[in-house]
Amino acid sequence: MNMNLYGHSDSWLMVDCGATFKAPLNPNDDKDESAKTYDVVAADPTFIENRQESLSGIIITHAHEDHVGALPALWERFKCPIYTTAFTAEVLRRKLYYTAIAGLVTIVVVEPGQVLDIGPFSVTWLPITHSLPDAQALFIQTPVASVFHTADWKIDFNPITDEPFQPALYKALKSIKPSAMVCDSTNALREGYSVSEGDCELGLLRTFQKQSNRIVVTCFGSNVARLISLARVAAKTGRYMTLLGRSLENMYSIARATGYWPDELKIAHRRHIGFLPKHEVLIVATGSQGEPRAALGKLAAGTHRDCELESGDTVIFSAITIPGNEKPIEKMVSGLREKGVKVINSENSEQVIHASGHPCQSDLSDMYQWVSPKIAIPVHGEAEHMQANAKVAAEAGIKQQLVGQNGDVFQLAPSVALIRKAVNTGRIDITGLPKAEQ
Fold this sequence. Notes:
Shape: globular
Strand order of the largest sheet: 8-9-10-11-12-18-19
Number of domains: 2
CATH superfamily of the largest domain: Ribonuclease Z/Hydroxyacylglutathione hydrolase-like
Radius of gyration: 22 Å
Distance between the termini: 14 Å
Structural class: alpha/beta
Largest sheet: 7 strands, mixed
Number of strands: 22
Number of helices: 12
C-alpha cells in the first residue's frame, strides 16, 4: 500500500498509490485470523485529499499492485496528472478501461533518464532493476533539499527484461550529495547480494531437465522476467508453455504490446494443453499463495476445465511464501501430494528457482556508498527490516539514519527533524470502488 508524499513550498508530490488484497483495516489485526478482512485495501488518503489543490502530480515508479493498484479507486480524490514509464502506463490504462474515469485521467509517459519539472519539484527518472520492466528510481530536487527515492530495486546484471543494472547512474549522485536516500528495506535482514533473475533461469532449466512428466510452475502474476525465463526454458527443454490465470495472460499481453516480450518465444493456447504428451507440457499458473480460486487451486482440487493433474506430474513454486499465507499453501500442497504430484518449493529446492526483486545487505551497502546521502531513511518493510537497513547505512558511512512509521514527517530543511505522528493515517476499504486487478 505504498503512498509517499514529498512537500515543498505549499506543494505536494505523490509517489505511488498502491493497494493490498485480503487485509484488515486495522494493521494490528494483520495476524489475527478472526479479524474481518476486505478484498482490496488502500492507505487512507485523507491528508492529501484535503489539500488536493496543492497536489502537483502523481508518479508511479513501477507496475506492481502495491504501487499502482489503488489509483483507479482513488484518482477522483486527487484529479491530477499521473507520470510514469511506458510499461506501467499500459498496465494502468488497462485497469482504468472499465471505469467511468478512463477518459478523464491524464497519463504522461516518461522516458527513463528524463527530467521533468512538476510544480516546484525537479524529477529525474533513473532506470533500476526489479522483477518487471521499466522500474524507476527517482531523484527529486527542490531549491532547499533533494531526495533519492529508490522505490523497489535490486542490483541485477542479468535482469532478463531490462538493461543490466548501471552503477554509474548512482555514483553520479554522490557529487550532488542528496539530502536523503529513501530506500527499500524488504530484504535488509538477508546477507549478501540478491539473486539475479539470470541465475534463476539457469536453476529452473536444471530443475526441468530432471522431470519427465507434465510440469506446472506457479509464480507471481506480475513477474514478467520470470515468464520470459520460463518461456526460454520451455523452448530449451522441448515443452509447449501455456498460461492459466487472468493476471498472467494480461501481463503477457502487456509485455507484447510494449515490446518486452521476445518475438521468438511462443505461448500455446490453454485449450490445446490437454491433447499434448505430458513430457511436452509446461503450465504456468496463478495461485502461488494458496488462493483456492486461482488456477493452481483449481488444478489441485481437480476442477480446472483445461487440465487435470495426475500422479507423476511436478508442481514448482517459483515464488516465496508471503507471511500469513502459510496455511492455505500447506493445504494446497497436501492436496497435490495426495494426487501423487511432486511438489518443489523455492525454500527447499536444490536449485535457485526464485529470485527476489529487492536488495539484500550487500546491495544496500553498495548503493549507500555510491550515492552517499546525508541521511538514510529506510522504508518499505516492517520495523525490524527498517532497523536492519539503518544499520547497513551506518556501516556504509551514512552518519544519520531516520527510522519512522506511517504518519511521521521527515523534515529535511531548513533543519533536520523527525516529527512523529504528524499526519493521521490508516487503511480504507476500496473493494466496492473501481477495482485493481489482482
